[in-house]
Design goal:
Layout: E1 2-7, H1 23-39, E2 44-47, H2 60-68, E3 75-78, E4 81-82, H3 88-102, E5 106-111, H4 118-121, H5 129-145, E6 148-151, E7 159-163, E8 175-179, H6 183-192, E9 196-199, H7 209-221, E10 231-239, H8 243-265, H9 272-278, E11 286-288, H10 290-304, E12 308-312, H11 320-349
Parallel strand pairs: 1-2, 1-12, 2-3, 3-5, 4-5, 5-8, 8-9, 9-10, 10-11, 10-12
Antiparallel strand pairs: 6-7
Helix pairs in contact: 1-2, 1-11, 2-3, 3-5, 6-7, 10-11
């Protein structure tokens, strides 16, 4: 059971002062957070790609590269790379470079993206949303498979027997399929034999169990060994010394950030009732003390089949020291508790 973190490198206004941290300062903080995550024994850190003022993560590969030379064991992944509006050649080159710096710890998490700012920014039409992803995923996997690439497509210039460098340390470098939970994307990942990452940020995580089962069945039918595949989840949350402290510190910035998105997308307002319901045992919000968060991750492994859990913290801007403490608790206390319980459970179920 792997446990890690994700961030969008948020730069939303402080809920108490209204002050907005600079992009530069927040980027430096995130590098420090990745270094700490490595030091406390967490398995993975992911940085999402966004192209808007309230996130400073338009170039996740650069942030991950900065952390690569300062870390030893933690895996470094995008979360996600908006592949539809990116050039797969450059994506591979960027992450192969991280792979070199980190000596084989880079991963690519490819997705369509739930935010669409990158499409007009890079000159793509949203009517091609699905077609762009399918075509560019095909090219990325071709690059990963062979040093010399020949490829023809509709939305990108063809490639005629060209090498793509540097070569990755890992053979091959992991490419994940990120999904919001549609059966089509889950089946695609299974057929391709690629690891699957699910964004579980609402409703009950237990509702994703049939999708995980669908993924493994699709993989098996395509001739892949399900035991060699990984399913990850990405969920919002925060760990503090007490449940009360976690709620008090995490709710206000989360409410603020979520209600900005609610206005943009026509969602219902994010309320304390919504928050409290989601942090119950079977809810999608992992907020509380060490025991509370550990119990929820254990349930996710046992009931849904998730084998990598990534905690997204923070959602809105929070004091750096609070985020660092949450990372320390996750690595030093939550992760060992989860791993011990899951190891025992797996031994009992293998008999």
């Amino acid at each position: 059971m792997e446990i890690g973190l994700t961030s969008f490198v948020e730069t939303t206004p402080d809920v108490n002062t209204g002050k907005v941290i600079s992009h530069a300062e927040r980027i430096r903080e995130v590098v420090e957070e990745i270094v700490l995550a490595d030091e406390v024994g967490l398995d993975v850190y992911g940085v999402g790609e966004h192209h808007r003022k309230d996130y400073a993560s338009s170039a996740p590969a650069v942030i991950l590269a900065a952390a690569a030379s300062q870390t030893k064991n933690i895996r470094l992944t995008s979360a996600v790379t908006v592949l539809s509006s990116a050039d797969p050649v450059r994506v591979f080159q960027d992450f192969a470079t991280i792979d070199a710096i980190s000596n084989g710890r880079a991963e690519i998490m490819a997705g369509r993206g739930s935010f669409i700012e990158s499409f007009p920014l890079f000159g793509y039409d949203l009517k091609d949303y699905n077609e762009l992803f399918d075509e560019k995923l095909e090219l990325l996997l071709n690059i990963r498979k062979s040093e010399s690439v020949s490829w023809n497509g509709k939305h990108r210039a063809s490639i005629d027997n060209r090498g793509v460098y540097p070569l990755s340390v890992q053979e091959p470098i992991p490419v994940w399929i990120a999904s919001g939970g549609t059966p089509e994307s889950v089946i695609r990942a299974g057929i391709l034999g690629l690891p699957l990452a699910l964004a579980i940020i609402g409703g009950s995580p237990l509702q994703f169990a049939p999708l995980v089962d669908l993924y493994y069945r699709a993989a098996a039918q395509a001739g892949h060994d399900p035991s060699q595949l990984t399913v990850a989840s990405h969920s919002h949350g925060f760990v503090a010394d007490t449940v009360e402290e976690a709620v008090d510190k995490f709710f206000p910035p989360t409410e603020q950030a979520m209600n900005v998105l609610a206005k943009e997308r026509g969602w219902a307002p994010y309320t304390k009732n919504t928050f409290d319901h989601a942090r119950q045992l079977e809810g999608a919000l992992y907020v509380g003390d060490v025991k509370t968060v550990a119990e929820k991750i254990i349930l996710l492994r046992k009931e849904v089949g998730i084998t990598r859990f990534m905690l997204h913290v923070p959602v809105g801007s929070m004091p750096h020291k609070d985020v660092m403490h949450a990372i320390e608790l996750l690595g030093k206390e939550v992760a060992p508790m989860v791993r011990k319980e899951i190891k025992q459970w797996e031994l009992e179920n293998s008999r």
